[in-house]
Design brief:
2 strands, two-stranded antiparallel sheet, 226 residues, binds zinc ion
Length: 226
């Protein structure tokens, strides 16, 4: 087994995604950090956390958003993947509405080993972070808004890292990780209408989208999602 260092050039990252080498976790982390979105997420999380720490005075409402965001994450990512990333273009009169995130996700399905489309699209990430910065302080007390933003941005980072790692040839022994990685590979290579979770398979199990593999037909459109 050879370990492939990813720090030589960004080009090497896509090599590792496509090759059957056995990268270490550190190799994968370096590859992940070649993209801008992990840095943007880390900066947003750090800035919000710093602002919250500076304000001090911890309150009970600091706990609720953290617990809620973590508990809802399996369902949040399931719903976004199902209804946003796999949404179809709709025609309203002369206008065709086709979400940018959905178009980028189709690109990800066409070539699951391509580096760029694995990540949250930059424009959508900036839009989501910007919306959080504007809306949260309008609807929540400032301290709670900052905690909520920190937790949501950190969770986006967990999602981004997990999704990237699943698409590398890295194979950890941890059983839970192997299970979610298997589910995501089935989503990409068997049927795009099942196995919608990325960091967790809980929503799939509860909502019936993780049946036994043999019960799901291979989809003709798993690469050419419409
Ligand atoms: Zn994927
Ligand atoms: Zn998908």
């Amino acid at each position: 087994m050879t370990s492939v260092p990813l720090d030589r050039a960004a080009r090497r990252v896509s090599d590792v995604l496509r090759d059957e080498h056995d990268p270490t976790l550190a190799d994968c982390l370096q590859g992940w950090l070649h993209h801008s979105t992990p840095w943007i997420i880390a900066t947003a999380t750090g800035a919000a956390l710093g602002a919250r720490l500076a304000l001090g005075k911890w309150v009970r409402t600091d706990v609720a958003p953290v617990v809620a965001i973590a508990a809802l994450q399996p369902f949040t990512e399931w719903a976004i993947h199902t209804y946003v990333l796999h949404s179809r273009a709709v025609r309203v009169g002369p206008i065709v509405i086709d979400l940018h995130a959905a178009r980028e996700h189709r690109r990800h399905h066409r070539d699951p080993k391509a580096f760029e489309p694995i990540f949250i699209p930059l424009a959508d990430l900036v839009l989501a972070l910007g919306a959080g910065i504007v809306v949260l302080p309008l609807v929540l007390p400032l301290r709670t808004a900052l905690t909520t933003f920190t937790a949501a941005a950190a969770m986006a980072g967990v999602y981004e890292w997990t999704h990237f790692l699943i698409h590398t040839p890295y194979r950890p022994r941890h059983r839970r990780y192997r299970r979610i990685a298997r589910g995501h590979r089935l989503h990409h290579y068997r049927n795009e209408r099942y196995w919608m979770g990325v960091t967790s398979g809980l929503a799939d199990r509860l909502l019936g989208t993780a049946p036994p593999r043999s019960h799901v037909a291979v989809s003709d459109t798993v690469r050419t999602v419409v």
